[in-house]
Amino acid sequence: MKLALVVLSAAGAQAWVTPQVSMRASTSLNAAGIYFATSTGNTETISEYLAEATGLEATEVGDLTPEVCAEADALIVGAPTWNTGADEQRSGTDWDDWLEDTLPNCDVTGKKVAIFGCGDQESYMDYYCDAAGELYDKFTAAGATVYGMTSTEGYNHESSKAELDGKFVGLLCDEDNQSDESEGRVTAWIAQLKEEGFPI
User: Strand locations in 38-111, DSSP E?
Assistant: First the structure.
């Protein structure tokens, strides 16, 4: 009789535990992503550093559809700067069309956005990382909130459309002349974004 009671008790415990094990715990996942375009591979390199530092996936901007944008809590976006000196379409990549054709169809009002860019401050010091400035202008005009402004110290440029009130609008890297600085800059920027409440 004692044995029967123990067996029934164990069976009862097993029957009670099994549903708990099979239930998936509710978790809060950060709906954030890294989106970039590249010409020479430098911006992709920085996106890979960012992916390693955050655990997020780095994807080309063509995958940033209005539907994906709507689901995202935050976006990290990056572009290179093409040597044209023009006022717009400075990246020379898919960003140029995306900003004109896709962004107007995306609801980014109140969306948290962090910007990174690549450029050559020695050869093109008069418009270093201008495309990052264009990303800032377009996203803020559409209602997004930009996080992660950085210091201009340690750079050797004359001017940049990515500079606002004495700061860069995000993380700027120069893989042509300061590639040894890039990983450290990425690490510091991610720490800064976390301190600012950016969801990564």
Answer: 58-60, 74-80
pLDDT tens digits, one per residue of 112-135: 999 999 999 999 888 899 999 999
Would you call 176 helix, strand, or coil by DSSP?
Answer: coil
pLDDT tens by residue, 45-60: 999 999 999 999 999 9
Q: Which residue intervals of 56-165 are DSSP H helices?
A: 66-71, 94-97, 130-141
> Which residues neighbour 200 within 8 Å (Cβ) at sequence distance 6 or greater?
30, 32, 54, 56, 74, 76, 190, 193, 194
**Residue 13: which residues within 8 A CB-CB, separation 6 or more?**
none
Q: DSSP for 134-160, please give it.
A: HHHHHHHHTT-EEE--EE-TT---S--
Tokens read off for 199? 């969801």
Domains belonging to the chain, first-starting first, are: 30-195 (3.40.50.360)
In the chain the first and final C-alpha atoms are separated, in Å, by 58
Q: What is the pLDDT of residue 83?
A: 65
Q: What pLDDT is attached to residue 8? A: 37
The pTM (predicted TM-score) of the whole model is: 0.83
